[in-house]
Amino acid sequence: MIDIPAESITFLFTDIEGSTQLWEQYPVAMKAALARHDAILREAIETHHGKVFKTVGDSFYAAFSSAPNALEAAMAAQRALHAEAAGIAPGTGPLIRVRMALHTGAAEERDGDYFGPPLNRVARLLSVGHGGQVLLSSVTDELVRAYLPPGAELRDMGEWRLKDLTRLEHISQLTVPDLPAHFPPLRALEALRTNLPAQLTSFVGREKEIAAVKRLIGANRLTTLTGPGGTGKTRLSLRVASDLLDSFVNGVWFVELAPLADPALVPQTVLATLGLREETGRPLIDTLSDYLRAKMALLILDNCEHLVEASAQLAEALLQACPNLRILASSREALSIPGEAVYRVPSLSTPDTHLAHSAESVAQCEATRLFIERARTVAPAFAVTDENAPAVAQVCARLDGIPLAIELAAARVKILRVEQIAERLDDCFRLLTGGSRTALPRQQTLRALIDWSYDLLPEPERAVLRRLSVFSGGWTLEAAEQVCADDNVDGYEVLDRLAQLVNKSLLVVDAEDGAETRYHMLETIRQYAREKLSAEEGESLRARDRHLDFFLALAERAEPELAGPRIAEWLRLLDAELDNLRAALEWSLNRNAQAGLRMGGALMDYWHAHNGLHEGMDWLSQILHQPGAAPRNGLRARALTALAALHEAQIESVKAEPLAREGLEIYRELGDQRGIAFALLTLGTALCGHDDYLAGRPLVFESLALYRNLGDKAGIAQVLNMLGNFIDEQDPGRARGYLEESLALARELGDTAGVADRLGNLGRAAYRAGDFATARARLTEALELHRSLGISDVSFVIEALGELALREGNYPEARVYFEEGIALARESGRINANYWIFSFLGYVTLRQGDYERARSLFVEAQNGFRDAGLKIGVTYALEGLAALAVAQDQPERAARLFAWADATREAIDNARPPIEQADVDRELAAVRARLDESAFAAAQAEGRAMTMEQAMAEASQI
């Protein structure tokens, strides 16, 4: 006896056989007949204590707490329906014939509906029956057998395999004396002519692929599934074939070719699969053709790649001779015969590892669902949690969504945590072993699977595959030709080799409309090819050196273009090659530091434009510390100064200053005037950023003079932009003049990014001069231009728009801009830029009356600026706290803090812009109104005498 849990439910599912045809034949009468059908079923179910929980079309889904009650309801309904049909003369109205199925199991009830495996089984059981028939599962059979009414019997129909279900079902049919008892054979899999193997594990996802392959089979005589090993071509073939069983009245036949080594055995294997005997003296193809000529059948040729020519010849001969035959093949490469439709089987969908994942979100992708199901097969206690979900996502993404690789990884949860599996994926070919003992040898480990494909390649294709493994993130034909060509593989041959590797599913083509064709390998294949390349030491060194040479040349070609009209195009190109640029820089660290210095310097503007400040600083710092980067030459000077400039963009003047000094010293030793001008500008800006305007400003003007002597318009424009935006911003008129001249030069040079930058800075200058209308127009134009060029670091424009909204009193708009600016600054790695925006946002919340939030923002900005060593930033934040003191009626404290700020600005030669001075004057007027002259003077004197630490301590009392 089967042990049934107490909470089990018996489900009764019904539907009308041939209802579509009945509606076509009797469109009017069918409406009344269906209403009568619904009434009969509902009465029978409810009379026997059942509940109808769903109806879909003419189908009823009911639940019973008692299996005998469910059986009684089915009998009552069939008797009533039979009586109704008896009163209808043939051809005069619709004869309603209803099939029914009963199954019992534990299910989950949610919002009035039921969910769980028992519902899948009863639905599949219903699908194999016929109108008027009542079928029972083995579970329900045992529950009702002792309660059968007189005359009723349960007829044993035997064991059957139901579509998509791994466990066989022993089916019974209810028979009663006054109802029909004889029906056609069940529509289950074994009732049809097929040798499709039972699938012992569940099939996950692939809904779109199943639908696509079905459409191709319907429209084409030959459909070939291609793709790398392990992507599930065979499983997809079997699933599609099982769905199409009803479409092929003469059968669906599965022919496994993988074990064969002799091409001559292909037709013989098909013959044996169909149960045919070889006829003496007659060609096998003739025997096959005669048998299949009049049949509507589907032939599945699985794993053709090592016998592709023999498979193609057989398929072409059969299709020509057998007009109703369809063939579904699977192979690493197409059969390439007329009329073939090729479908590349993609990997399973994988999660985006750049996003945070929870237990719920990670289960949304096919790859992760497969991992979870297979893991639970080997370790039933396995569960996905919010803690291990990121590791599950990483494993599935690193394995490219390849089903076989994921199943092999999931098998390891018996002995490893998912986090440990993720950590070991760099050595995945050792980790992913131990597949099913019954699988083909090449499917038992990931290495054996790829070995199978690799061993089928001729040596020139193997060599190209190995060398292509040095690429990361894909490549173009031009890059492949430079890296792969040598004495044994000519450059013109590389395209042909690429095409062959694509055809054999070892490479993937990425072709978007209007974009240059790119190629890539799945990561698992790349690791395998890289391992093969590493075994060929000389070949490996040459390939990686050529890879470095190619991407160094690309970076140096890109550098001037980033200051030209084609910047958007070149930013997209560098984005596409970012992983390769990183790989080349990594190789340069120990192999060719001088090349690394060249490349790092050339990419400075790219990192600046694309939120890559930290990455750029990290690469340049690593390369500069390599022994090969020690010579005091122009390359070192350029890299030092570029690193300083990136630190300065991050508002890290303390770190930028010594780097720029060393770069300047080397340039002076070399007498490189252009380099000296670049280093002077960088050092001067760093000193000013560190509040040493007296030392920094002269260096910037010296840089300007050098660039003018050199006639270097790009350099002149750069210095003028710096003067107008940063160094002389306290004088709006002079700043605007510098920026207008810089803008004109940028336009003359075709420097589109420079134009966008200058427009933004002119907007800031107009804002400081109180010309808000011009400011908004300039800033909006700058923002649109930046974004059209693909420049992602636009936080400074967003920040300026926020300041403008603040001055205009539009506090909600200002808050939106500042919060977006904070997000952009964090994304770009410009952490210190956050602190300015915190101060601005502090003023917004202050004006809105949220004093506690304002105080928190000003203090956060103050502390950040203090840690960065930026005194002017600390000063600005403390001025905000002084304004807060005025709002909270602390006039003496406000007077002291404003006086300290005045003294500090005088000491560092950084006066307030007029628009900010006007704000401070209004605050001081409010303070004077609350204090007499002597108290105000005393407070001012105390404030001017305070140190920065004392001023911060004073502010902490607000």
**How much helical structure, as a percent, in the residues?**
55-70%
CATH architecture of one domain: 2-Layer Sandwich
* CATH level 1 name of one domain: Alpha Beta
Please name the fourth-level CATH homologous superfamily of one domain: Nucleotide cyclase, GGDEF domain
Poorly predicted regions? 1-6
Mean pLDDT: 87
What is the gyration radius calculated from CA atoms? 39 Å
Distance between the termini: 80 Å
Please name the CATH topology of one domain.
Answer: Alpha-Beta Plaits
Instruction: Name the quaternary structure.
Output: single chain
User: What's the story with the biggest beta sheet?
Assistant: 7 strands, mixed
Q: What structural category characterises the helix and strand content?
A: alpha/beta
Please count the beta strands (DSSP E, at least 2 residues each): 17
Shape: globular
The count of helical stretches stands at 44
SS strand fraction: 5-15%
Structure summary:
The protein has 958 residues and is an alpha/beta fold.
Q: What are the SSEs and their pairings?
A:
Elements: E1 9-16, H1 19-25, H2 29-47, E2 51-56, E3 59-64, H3 67-86, E4 98-105, E5 108-110, E6 113-115, H4 117-127, E7 134-136, H5 138-144, E8 153-160, E9 169-175, H6 207-219, E10 222-226, H7 233-243, E11 252-256, H8 265-273, H9 284-292, E12 298-302, H10 308-321, E13 326-330, E14 340-344, H11 359-362, H12 366-378, H13 389-398, H14 403-410, H15 418-423, H16 428-431, H17 446-455, H18 459-468, E15 475-476, H19 477-484, H20 491-503, E16 508-510, E17 518-520, H21 523-534, H22 537-561, H23 567-576, H24 578-591, H25 593-602, H26 604-609, H27 613-624, H28 634-649, H29 653-670, H30 673-689, H31 693-710, H32 713-727, H33 732-749, H34 752-768, H35 772-788, H36 795-807, H37 811-828, H38 831-847, H39 851-868, H40 871-887, H41 891-908, H42 914-930, H43 933-944, H44 948-955
Parallel strand pairs: 4-7, 10-13, 10-14, 11-12, 12-13
Antiparallel strand pairs: 1-3, 1-4, 2-3, 5-6, 7-9, 8-9, 15-17, 16-17
